[in-house]
Amino acid sequence: MSPQASAGEPATYGLILAGGLARRMGGGDKALLRIGKETILERTIATLGAQCAGLLINANGDVSRFSRFARPVVADDIAGFAGPLAGILAGLDWVAANAPKSEWVLSVPGDCPFLPRDLVARLHAARIASELPLACAQSGEWRHPVVGLWAVALRHDLRRALDGGTRKIEAWTRIHGAAPAQWPATPVDPFFNVNTPEDLAQAERIARRGA
After folding, report:
1. Rounded CA gap, 98 and 180, in Å?
2. Residues in a beta bridge with 105
3. For the stretch 13-27, what's the b/e string if a residue is b when 16 or more beta carbons lie within 10 angstroms of its beta carbon?
């Protein structure tokens, strides 16, 4: 485990899903949008770096746009744009091959600038308390299936599901069971995500308040 990773949790690798199409932002990489002096990706790396054994970026296309972040970049290997499940599978396969001491992967979207600093700990706690193999975040009444904890050992089952046409995260997690880990949604939802220019402006205001 990395010396930065939480010593009290199982070795958990962080996976930042930056492969979305960003249609409502007019295309491009939402993770590279700036909030103040930092990109969302920089903020995410800073938050997860202290929680995870290592960090990995899932993105498709030219990987050189992420070269300055000095993190491995893995692309989907499922044909077509199969959504976040394909990115999660790519991350699980990469970790199994390159970081075998990490039996867990934490996935987060690349457009959430205010992720909590206890994300890994609380997801593991929810999983253990519920005796379920997976966990996902919830704020208020909203579940966030992309913010999830995944067992690397389930990667073969996930590939079979994707090959069979499954695309929605909750359609697959429902089979195994995913424990919700709860966070308050106020005063700032820690899973606020930037989908539109208006969201980006709101994120700027939140950041200026020191959230």
Report:
1. 29
2. 13, 150
3. bbbbbbbbebeebee
Over residues 67-84, the pLDDT tens digits come to: 999 999 999 999 877 899
What single letter denotes the amino acid at residue 100? P
Residue 71 near residue 56 (C-beta atoms within 8 A): yes
Residue 6, pLDDT > 90, answer no
Section 6-32 average pLDDT: 75
Question: Which two tokens mark 29?
Answer: 């990489």
Q: What is the pLDDT of residue 2?
A: 40
- For residue 27, pLDDT over 70 is answered with no
Residue 97: pLDDT above 50? yes
pLDDT, one tens digit per residue, over 46-66 is: 999 999 999 999 999 899 999
Residue 6's H or E segment, with its range, is none
Of 102, 82, 80, whose CA–CA distance to 92 is shortest?
102
Q: Name the 3-class secondary structure at 32.
A: helix
Helix crossing, 40-49 with 119-130: angle to 10°? 60
- How distant, in Å, are the alpha carbons of 131, 190, 197 from that of 33? 38, 18, 10
Angle at 120 between CA 86 and CA 90, to 5 degrees: 15
Question: What is the Rg, in whole angstroms, of the alpha carbon atoms belonging to the chain?
Answer: 16
pLDDT at 204 over 80: yes
**3-state class of 49 per DSSP?**
helix
How many whole angstroms separate alpha carbon 18 and alpha carbon 107? 11
